[in-house]
Design brief:
This protein has one domain. Helix content is 73%, strand content 2%. The protein is built from 9 helices and 2 strands. Strands 1-2 form a two-stranded antiparallel sheet. Keywords: Kinase, Membrane, Transferase, Transmembrane, Transmembrane helix.
Length: 195
Amino acid sequence: MALEIGRRLVHASGATLPAAYLIDTHVLGTGLFTWSVVRALTVLGLLVTAILEAARLYGGLEHVIYDRLTRGYEADSVAGYAMYVLSSTVTVFAFEPRVAVPALFMLALADPVSGMLSGDQFRVVARPRVFVGMFAVSFLLAFPFVSLPAAAAGAFGATAADGVKPIVAGHVVDDNLTIPLFAAGAMSLALSVVG
């Protein structure tokens, strides 16, 4: 149980970057934490992650953090945190802040809620309560940033990415990779169609 709480806290820590951007942009107004800074920090995070994953998978790097925070099935494959960092980086470069920020919040905050609702049981298709919980939290995270239809579309994208786990070539597609991309893509599409 303590390990799951640790994983969820690490997951939620991903909200600090978009939150810092929002606080600087809308509260402090210092202009120090711009979207360009967010992009630069995600690239730096991606480079560090790539080095750590290469060292872990191919160089024999072992650390107590890996033992505690990675799952057994990640021992010989790219870990979920690397997918998380990769998708976050792509999201901040591919989408405007008003779409990217709530998409990152969905990954950082809604996904752990979904995990709690699922009881950490792997299912190719999640239980109904997981779909409902993920949609509700994702919608609440998106609505302050975009219109009602766009928030619903983003929540639907995040929920679909979280609740349906496709298996490609024997590997489960990690929702850390898909949640922000599906959510941001759906919000962008909804904004372009209905505003």
